[in-house]
């Protein structure tokens, strides 16, 4: 049956047009209920032993945490609801899709829009929302009639008007809260998102609010859009200072600088990484605050922090709350200062932390109000109502934000689930993974079904493949960190008769086992990367692939994708060959073992000779890169020695980089560059590349000021000039240069993946490597970007067809964005794991050690501890002393105590005491104090 369906849409030019499409209706769509005798289908999902629920769009959008609970089952998800959710919130849509495919949940998607008996025509003058509500009620009535009186169909909706109409039409309808109460599981009530008005009424009953408003109302989007157009307002992502949650920055392209936001009032209910609209404060207020290190209990001073002026349009009276104190302070810079006037895109998420009970009695229905305190100090406290306060008080829990009204001191949220006991290492590690949105779910049956059977070995088809070259005769070996099991790269180096070298980089051929569009491929694309914590690894691909089938282990035959060069003794590339291959590694060495072989002159075996030849070539290649302007940066990588039984850290120190590490890095860089050139030549509009944007002058200014304070003049005009300046930045001790390079690293932009069709070729440049082209090819076991590049290279060599995703520019851009997001999250999780194990290590080991000052603040300084790779704040004033007798010279990066000769400057060596303290309940921290 054919129907015409019409709707209006706005074109890019702003014109409104009517679109008419043909809409096919069918009568063979089954209802999914096991009790049904009419529909013939094997895909039965709905049980007859309980009520069948039909949920509306708002229930899905706002109650997804509750819907994911095992207690909620036997649910019909109408296609009209699923389509609307997809248009309004892609994250919730993906979670809903997962529920509908979960074999453990009876969620059934019914295509009411395509069923002849449930499709509803549009009515003249009816809004899309009203039409969808009518379609939901119509489907509920049809189900009741279709299945008969023996089955209860229950419509779940929080829309009063929709519920009223449903009851009038003879449909059983409940609000989500009343339905959950009927289940008689009080703990489930904590998952119910209460409308903002209801939360306010509940809180008002508990403790009347003293003020009508704590924050200014957000401007409407129409006004924000107009203000951005006329540069009255400025848009950017809000980043909260990790050392001071009352200080934030918004990078604005419209003014080419960062706007500083001081105090929660001026942040105006914005969360870290929200996209916000900012209004600049008058210039005479730009000098109102110095940058402080926040004291741990500053957030208890809510009366000062949340003050809002009596005039709704006046700027806040008290912008000097960066360290919880009022009063004026001297000027330190002319950086623009502003306040948030609207939220363009929220970054609300689930947060991990613990509860802080409120000092007033429980509210209605046995629910107690409590403040949730996130482990991340950048997140404000969140008020929740809970029926199980006693059970949660010593637990790490997850809470989600629901709303933040301008008349509420705190955002409102709801409890999601309990993680575990506070202080337990496994619990705290799980908190890190949740905070960084790392997928730790076991691989599904559908994903595991994509794997080849074990034990795997080369097949006759592999051997006979004309596109795969047999390289088992070559002396191939790998060099990796100690204990590495997911080996995805190996090398060979042989001497040719003409005196040149044949050098090969062999990469695990993951795409031979991961086919486009399969559940395995989709899972890998979603995860994006493997995540490395101190004590464990969360794989992007199942372990049979990462540690066995694809891993280039010693003495086993493996499939590879190889890049082979002919090189002169001066490391000039004569020719490059790309081929799928079969290899058999003769040795899997660690960096330490490889270095020991190269350093031991008594060792002259073939593998050691190959290592020395590769190292000689790598040194030349490295110097050539540096001469082009490549930066030799440094990072504070920490290495732990872990107890094999307790998994507690036994020792901690800076990770040592050897020549062997640099040698492997050099050839991986060269392979990535060669592959980038090849795929871009064949696919100029759909290649996945990696770029490192040039840092702005403003980004590098802190480094320039720090260097100038110790008499160094850094030239930042080009990457080559900066590289040369860093080479000449030599102090009295050997660590000085590394410290300068660490500071330079922190001024850099993030390298990112992108689609070549999205940018002009001039923007492809990788600043840090001084390379016009770059991509990731060498780690497909642990990075999905490399999987995509392998497919591009195979298509360029006409070994395989180009997958359809590369012809969809929008989808390709989305994939690149997800890879960037996942890569950053993996980095953040790794750093948080280091911080957790640092706390565990020092909990019983108070230590005195040397540190370097890296940043001067008004009430102290930030130091870096070279021995342990730790960075943290050192306070010079007690809370309440403001900045005491200390005066700060921002330009000279020094601070001096009045009436004394005591002063401190950046890069100065100081002696500090390290000790784990807990100034706030459940928030242990490593405290650094000056000796």
Strand and helix layout:
Blueprint: E1 2-10, E2 16-24, E3 52-55, H1 57-62, H2 64-67, E4 75-78, H3 79-88, H4 90-101, E5 107-110, H5 128-147, E6 153-156, H6 160-168, E7 172-174, H7 176-182, H8 196-206, H9 221-229, E8 233-241, E9 244-252, E10 257-262, H10 263-267, E11 275-280, H11 302-305, E12 338-345, E13 350-357, E14 368-374, E15 382-386, H12 389-392, E16 395-403, E17 412-421, H13 425-435, H14 445-448, H15 460-464, E18 468-470, E19 476-480, E20 489-495, E21 501-508, H16 519-527, E22 531-532, E23 537-538, H17 543-549, E24 557-567, E25 573-590, H18 591-599, H19 606-628, E26 638-642, E27 649-654, H20 659-682, E28 688-691, H21 697-709, H22 719-728, H23 735-746, E29 752-755, H24 784-796, H25 809-842, E30 847-857, E31 860-865, E32 870-875, E33 886-889, E34 894-897, E35 903-905, E36 909-917, E37 925-930
Domain PIN: 51-164
Protein name: Exosome complex exonuclease RRP44
Organism: Platanthera zijinensis
């Amino acid at each position: 049956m054919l129907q015409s369906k019409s709707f209006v849409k706005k074109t890019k030019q702003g014109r409104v047009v009517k679109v008419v499409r043909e809409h096919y209706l069918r009568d063979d769509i089954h209802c999914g209920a096991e009790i049904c005798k009419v529909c013939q289908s094997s895909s039965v999902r709905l049980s007859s032993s309980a009520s069948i629920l039909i949920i509306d769009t708002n229930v899905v959008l706002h109650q997804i945490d509750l819907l994911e609970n095992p207690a909620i089952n036997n649910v019909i998800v109408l296609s009209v609801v699923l389509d609307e959710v997809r248009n309004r919130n892609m994250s919730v849509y993906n979670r809903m899709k997962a529920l509908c495919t979960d074999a453990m949940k009876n969620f059934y998607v019914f295509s009411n829009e395509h069923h002849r008996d449930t499709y509803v025509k549009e009515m003249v003058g009816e809004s899309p929302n009203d039409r969808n509500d009518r379609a939901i009620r119509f489907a509920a009535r049809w189900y009741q009639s279709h299945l008969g009186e023996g089955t209860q169909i229950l419509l779940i909706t929080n829309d009063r008007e929709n519920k009223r109409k449903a009851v009038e039409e003879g449909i059983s309808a409940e609000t989500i809260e009343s339905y959950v109460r009927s289940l008689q599981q009080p703990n489930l009530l904590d998952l119910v998102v209460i409308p903002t008005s209801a939360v306010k009424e509940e809180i008002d009953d508990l403790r009347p609010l003293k003020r009508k408003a704590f924050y200014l109302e957000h401007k409407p989007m129409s006004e924000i859009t107009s203000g951005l157009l006329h540069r009255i307002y400025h848009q950017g992502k809000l980043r909260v200072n990790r050392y001071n949650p009352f200080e934030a920055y918004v990078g604005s392209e419209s003014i080419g600088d960062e706007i500083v936001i001081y105090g929660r009032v001026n942040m105006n209910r914005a969360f870290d990484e929200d996209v916000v609209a900012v209004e600049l404060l008058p210039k005479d207020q730009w000098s109102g605050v110095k940058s402080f290190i926040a004291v741990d209990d500053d957030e208890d001073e809510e009366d000062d922090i949340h003050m809002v002026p009596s005039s709704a349009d006046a700027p806040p009276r008290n912008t000097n709350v960066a360290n919880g104190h009022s009063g004026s302070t001297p000027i330190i810079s002319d950086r623009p200062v502003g306040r948030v006037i609207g939220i363009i895109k929220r970054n609300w998420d689930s947060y991990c932390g613990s509860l802080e009970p409120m000092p007033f009695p429980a509210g209605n229905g046995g629910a107690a109000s409590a403040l949730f305190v996130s482990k991340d100090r950048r997140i404000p406290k969140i008020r929740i109502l809970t029926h199980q306060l006693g059970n949660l008080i010593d637990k790490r829990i997850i809470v989600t934000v629901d709303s933040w009204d301008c008349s509420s001191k705190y955002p409102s949220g709801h409890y999601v689930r309990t993680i575990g006991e506070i202080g337990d290492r496994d619990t705290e590690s799980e908190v890190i993974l949740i905070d960084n949105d790392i997928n730790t779910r076991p691989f599904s049956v559908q994903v595991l079904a994509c794997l080849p059977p074990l034990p795997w070995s080369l097949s006759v088809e592999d051997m006979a493949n004309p596109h795969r070259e047999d390289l088992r005769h070559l002396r191939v070996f790998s060099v990796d960190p100690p204990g590495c099991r997911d080996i995805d790269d190996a090398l060979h180096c042989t001497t040719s008769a003409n005196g040149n070298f044949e050098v090969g980089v062999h990469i695990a051929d993951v795409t031979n086992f991961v086919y486009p569009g399969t559940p395995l491929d989709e899972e890998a694309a979603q995860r994006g990367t493997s995540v490395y914590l101190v004590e464990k690894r969360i794989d992007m691909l199942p372990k049979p692939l990462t540690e066995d089938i694809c891993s280039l282990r010693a003495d086993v035959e493996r499939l590879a994708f190889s890049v082979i060069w002919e090189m002169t003794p001066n490391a000039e590339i004569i020719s490059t060959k790309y081929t799928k291959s079969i290899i058999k590694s003769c040795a899997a060495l660690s960096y330490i073992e490889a270095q020991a072989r190269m350093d031991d002159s008594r060792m002259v075996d073939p593998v050691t000779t190959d290592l020395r030849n590769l190292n000689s070539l790598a040194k030349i290649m490295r110097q050539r890169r540096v001469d082009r302007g490549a930066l030799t940066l440094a990072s504070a990588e920490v290495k732990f020695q872990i107890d094999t039984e307790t998994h507690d850290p036994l020792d901690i120190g800076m990770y040592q980089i050897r020549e062997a590490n640099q040698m492997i890095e050099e050839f991986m860089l060269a392979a990535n560059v060669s592959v980038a050139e090849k795929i871009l030549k064949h696919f100029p509009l759909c290649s996945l590349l990696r770029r490192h944007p040039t840092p702005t002058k403003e980004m590098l200014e802190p480094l320039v000021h720090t260097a100038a304070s110790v008499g160094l003049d850094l030239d930042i005009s080009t990457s080559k000039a900066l590289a040369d300046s860093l080479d000449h930045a030599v102090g009295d001790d050997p660590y000085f240069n590394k410290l300068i390079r660490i500071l330079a690293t922190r001024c850099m932009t993030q390298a990112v993946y992108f689609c070549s069709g999205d940018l002009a070729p001039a923007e492809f440049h990788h600043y840090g490597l001084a390379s016009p082209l770059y991509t990731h090819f060498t780690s497909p076991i642990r990075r999905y970007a490399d999987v995509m590049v392998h497919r591009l290279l195979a298509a360029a060599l006409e070994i395989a067809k180009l997958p359809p995703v590369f012809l969809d520019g929008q989808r390709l851009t989305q994939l690149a964005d997800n890879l960037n997001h996942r890569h950053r999250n993996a980095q953040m999780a790794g750093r948080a794991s280091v911080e957790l194990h640092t706390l565990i290590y020092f909990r019983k080991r108070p230590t005195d050690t040397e540190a370097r000052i890296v940043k001067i603040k008004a009430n102290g300084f930030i130091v870096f501890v070279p021995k342990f790779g730790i960075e943290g704040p050192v306070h010079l004033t007690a809370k309440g002393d403001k900045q005491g007798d200390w005066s700060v010279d921002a330009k000279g990066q020094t601070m001096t105590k009045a009436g004394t000769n005591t002063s401190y400057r950046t890069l100065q060596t100081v002696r500090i005491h390290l000790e784990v303290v807990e100034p706030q309940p459940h928030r242990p921290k490593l405290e650094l104090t000056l000796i």
